[in-house]
Amino acid sequence: MNLPYTVVIGKGAIKELENYRMFTQRIVITEKKMAQLLKPQQYAPDAHILVFKGGEQQKQMKTVVSLAQEMMNLGVDRKSLVIAIGGGVVGDVAGFVASIYMRGIAYIHVPTTLLAMVDSSIGGKTGVDLHEAKNMLGTIYRPRAVISDLRFLLTLPKEEMRNGFAEIIKVALIKDNVLYHAIAKEKEKLLEPSHALLEGIIRRAIKIKLDIVTQDETEQGVRRLLNFGHTVGHAIEAASSYQIKHGTAVAIGMVYAAKLSQREGLLSQQSVTEILELLESMGFPTMLPTAMNKDQLIAGMMHDKKKEHQHIHAVLLKDIGNALIQELPIERWRGVL
Ligand SMILES: NC(=O)c1ccc[n+]([C@@H]2O[C@H](COP(=O)([O-])OP(=O)(O)OC[C@H]3O[C@@H](n4cnc5c(N)ncnc54)[C@H](O)[C@@H]3O)[C@@H](O)[C@H]2O)c1
Ligand SMILES: [Zn+2]
């Protein structure tokens, strides 16, 4: 099955926007910081630029309603196009608006963070938070195109590069040992946006996610592999009241998932050590913060907090580049934390 949308990747890829002109109106949705940094009007001079404050705190229904209201005031119709320019927050909000405005209008994402390029822009998930509950309201909606201009990474803080790399290492660990070893060879040098191998690595990571979501758009099967490192990772994020960044939490989560894989007799100790060393060399912590309460963490990982001997899906590694899903009692996780 081919996904009926295009992913364009490269330096200067933003020029592709020129090919999407056959719309009654073009609306760029972006956040304040990116509006100042990128000056999006230079890429779509005809478009109305709608700007919201940005940041996870703004990923709320009220932002969606206010953007939709502005679109209505501008007379945006069914044959108009929404262009999201920004990271995952902008993409999730703008994609959600596009998916519900007049029951759905065309939408293009121009991701500007590494995380958005390799992860959030691929697969069509959109949405906003319901107060603290992340991504509670949303849709699955295919963008017409995703245009990843790698030049935009040049202004991205190193911390955000690292955040995106957690997801690249994740797809390498679950599907692609060649990609994994390419990363392991260069290590933290890859956090430099001008690194010669970065484009190839990003392309390969995008291809892996595209392949997975194409096979399973609604998360019934193989898409669950993408949750590698996320069971513990999400619990860490929540237990830290979202003070720990997603990529950092996922990196720690991947270490514990690797340890559990070893404990279950699937993965060699040598591979666990290799994974730990790579994450460490990229600047990630590889252990839970000492102050973190393990009971709270375990509670965060359970779907039904009242069931004591619950089984949950665990994404484990058989080898670097080869993952599988197993139902395991929650106590097994406790054993490695
Ligand atoms: N839809 C999905 O499938 C999916 C998948 C993963 C994550 N997400 C969502 O994505 C969001 C996180 O995305 P993110 O990490 O891109 O966060 P973000 O959009 O908040 O961007 C991170 C920071 O980088 C800044 N920034 C963006 N582009 C920049 C650039 N080119 N130069 C300098 N600064 C830049 C932003 O202003 C922000 O401060 C979360 O809300 C998460 O839930 C969605
Ligand atoms: Zn993630």
Q: Tell how many strands the DSSP assignment holds.
A: 10
CATH topology of the largest domain: Dehydroquinate synthase-like, alpha domain
The proportion of residues in beta strands is: 15-25%
Mean pLDDT: 95
Radius of gyration: 20 Å
The CATH architecture term of the largest domain is: Up-down Bundle
Number of domains: 2
Class by SSE composition: alpha/beta
Oligomer: single chain
Instruction: Give the strand line-up of the largest sheet.
Output: 1-8-5-4-2-3
What can you see in these coordinates?
Helices cover 42% and strands 19% of the residues. The relative contact order is 0.11. It contains twelve helices and ten strands. α2 crosses α3 (88-100) and α8 packs across α9. It has a six-stranded parallel sheet with strand order 1-8-5-4-2-3. A two-stranded antiparallel sheet has the order 6-7. The longest helix is centred in the middle third of the chain and has 18 residues, at 158-175. It has two domains: 6-155, Rossmann fold, CATH 3.40.50; 158-336, Dehydroquinate synthase-like - alpha domain (Dehydroquinate synthase-like, alpha domain). It starts with 5 loop residues before the first strand and ends with a helix. The chain has 337 residues and is an alpha/beta fold. It is globular, with a radius of gyration of 20 Å. It has helices at residues 32-38, 61-73, 88-100, 114-120, 158-175, 177-186, 198-215, 230-239, 246-263, 269-281, 294-301, 330-336, and strands at residues 6-10, 26-31, 48-52, 81-86, 106-111, 125-130, 133-140, 145-149, 311-319, 322-329. The mean pLDDT is 95. α1 links the parallel β2 and β3. Zinc ion (ZN) binds next to α9.
